[in-house]
Amino acid sequence: MDLRQLEIFCKVVELGSFSKAGEAIYLTQPTISEHIKSLEDHLGARLLDRMGREVIPTKAGEILYRYAKKILELRVEAKQVIENFSGKMAGEITIGGSNIPGEYVLPHLLGKFKDNYPNISICLRIGDTKEIIDQVLNNRIEMGIVGAKIQDRRLQYSEFIKDELILVIPPSHPWKSRTSIKPEELKDQPFISRERGSGTRITMEKALLDVGINLNTLKVIAEMGSTEAIRQGIKAGLGVSILSKRAVEDELRFGVLREVNIQGLELIRHFYIVFHKGRTKSPLVDAFIGFLTENSSI
After folding, report:
1. How many structural domains does the chain have?
2. Cα maximum dimension of the chain
3. Are residues 185 and 234 in the same domain?
4. What is the pLDDT, as a whole number, of residue 78?
5. How far apart are CA 12 and CA 33, in angstroms?
6. pLDDT averaged over consecutive 10-residue blocks of the chain (298 residues)?
7. Residue 237 backbone zone (phi > 0: left; psi -120 to 50: alpha; other: beta)
8. For residue 298, what pLDDT is reported?
9. Three-state DSSP class for 218?
10. Is 58 exposed, middle or buried (0-12, 13-18, 19+ CB in 10 A)?
11. Residue 87: its pLDDT value, please?
């Protein structure tokens, strides 16, 4: 089998479209179709079905996709090992970060990593914790940094750094002069929540339950898909929320937002490095994990 055809096939499966795959790898749609047909002829099986505008793999296509990903990963790994043996670390790795580590922790670390390994490029994908873990499980990314554990026997987690969640209010809020509140007082406030699947929400829900507060009993006025959206909502006076302190450090420093302690609530969590147990880590990923471990005190 031609490795280039396997690359094209995987891209079509991942993007669900011949035209999108063509745009991603700079080939025309007829050329993409020709490569797929050649691959199907070689294997004697139909690999893709067109469902309206969407392209989905057949059962044979699903099987080939799993093996094709392994073949392509082995090719990359072989090249990286040889380069490492030759004394030069070079290549590209794709990692994921859930919203807080992806937006507020990793960018700074990636700059330092690049100083140490100038020939390694890192592609960072950002999503909520569930999205990043799904991409790890589907072998779309080699590893992720997430804000909560989602249990799956195929995953392996390693503690990275700690993060503190805090109750954040606008400066005009009636609690502005208070240093703390009782947990039950939250029930009377309009509350802005992160969406399901967010590591912040998973940690927050568990902590609230530990003090007898169910998220469903709060006056949740909105669920938002990003920390930035919630931060702007609080500034606009829509409500209060529980957020990572890392995400609002500047606003707290300049008095744009305020922090109030919730009595008896433990809101310390870890960020975790997560990867697939069944996938051999490439030398580049090993180097990056080693770098993260050395810089886990930030």
Report:
1. 3
2. 73
3. yes
4. 82
5. 10
6. 91 92 90 94 94 90 93 82 66 91 93 88 93 92 93 94 95 94 95 92 92 93 94 95 95 95 91 91 87 81
7. left
8. 60
9. coil
10. middle
11. 54
Angle, helix 106-116 to helix 283-294, in steps of 10 degrees: 120
Classify 231 as helix, strand or coil.
helix
Task: Report the C-alpha gap between 149 and 202 in whole angstroms.
Answer: 9
Cα–Cα dist 36/262, whole Å: 58
Using CA atoms, how far residue 284 sits from 88, 89, 161, in Å, is 11, 7, 21
Q: Could you identify the residue written with the tokens 């886990």? A: 296
Q: Report long-range pairs for 244-252 (Cβ below 8 Å, ≥24 apart).
A: 244/100, 244/104, 244/147, 244/163, 244/164, 244/165, 244/166, 244/200, 245/163, 245/164, 245/165, 245/166, 246/100, 246/104, 246/105, 246/163, 246/164, 247/100, 247/103, 247/104, 248/166, 248/168
What DSSP element (H or E) covers 163?
A: strand 155-169
User: What element of type H or E holds 61?
Assistant: helix 59-85
Could you tell me the two tokens for 285?
Answer: 């990923």
Domain carrying residue 283: 83-160+271-294
Same domain, 261 and 168: yes
Identify the bridge partners of residue 243 per DSSP, sorted by sequence position: 166
Q: Cβ-count burial of 270 within 10 angstroms (0-12 exposed, 13-18 middle, 19+ buried)?
A: middle
Reading the block at residue 127, the tokens are 């999503």
Strands 180-181 and 258-262: parallel
| Same domain, yes or no: 135 and 7 | no
What angle (nearest 5°) sits at the alpha carbon of residue 70, between those of residues 66 and 75?
150
Task: State whether 39 and 91 are in the same domain.
Answer: no
Q: What is the CATH number of the domain that holds 199?
A: 3.40.190.10
